[in-house]
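Run log // design_07
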């Protein structure tokens, strides 16, 4: 299947005429018609708009995968948590898992909602871990390796634009 064929399939599946879809994604009719005919390729920003309107990933739209949407969309904080978790030793991971299980149990037992803060970890700084807990579990972190830094930057570029970041 080509990009143009996938575009036609998705547009029709969602019930849009070409004209309606062009208005929705703010594109000239002839430009869009050329996309469907595989005579022209959209710029990245246009591709993202089309994917958002059709509720699919750009990879699906470009026929790079048969999965319409990734199962999980991570925000910047979630990506950072995963990268930090991967850097922990087995004891640090066990501490994080135990703390998470404890917090979930507390919330599920009616103890309250999980605190959420736009500032990141501000809402959970009240946790008091024993001195025997690994440094990383008590808030200390070791320097990030160059490889991990490159991976983190790559993930950030994939999922976040400068416009979407919180203003501090």
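design_07 sequence
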């Amino acid at each position: 299947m080509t990009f143009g064929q996938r575009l036609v399939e998705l547009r029709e599946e969602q019930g849009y005429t070409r004209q309606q879809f062009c208005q929705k994604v703010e594109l000239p009719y002839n430009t869009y018609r050329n996309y469907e005919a595989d005579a022209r390729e959209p710029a990245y920003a246009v591709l993202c708009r089309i994917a958002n309107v059709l509720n699919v990933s750009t990879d699906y739209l470009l026929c790079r995968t048969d999965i319409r949407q990734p199962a999980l969309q991570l925000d910047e904080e979630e990506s950072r948590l995963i990268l930090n978790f991967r850097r922990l030793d087995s004891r640090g991971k066990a501490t994080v898992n135990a703390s998470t299980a404890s917090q979930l149990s507390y919330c599920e037992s009616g103890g309250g909602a999980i605190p959420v803060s736009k500032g990141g970890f501000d809402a959970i700084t009240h946790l008091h871990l024993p001195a025997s807990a690994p440094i990383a579990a008590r808030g200390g972190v070791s320097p990030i390796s160059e490889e991990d830094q490159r991976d983190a930057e790559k993930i950030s570029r994939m999922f976040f634009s400068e416009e979407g970041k919180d203003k501090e």
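Residues 76-162 form one domain.
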